[in-house]
Amino acid sequence: MAPVVHGSLDEARAAIARLSRGRTIIPARQRLHVDSVTRGAWRELLKGPALRITVLQIAINFTFAWGYWGLQTWLPTLLQQRGLSLPQSYSFIAISALCMFPGYMVASYLTGKLGRKKVMVTFVGLSAVAGYGFANAQTIDMLHFCNFALAFFSLGAWGVWDTWIAELYSTRLRTIGYSWAALAQRLANIAAPTIIGMLVAQGTSFNVTTTFINLFLVATVLLALFVPETEGKDLD
Question: Which residues form a coiled coil (predicted)?
Answer without folding.
Answer: none
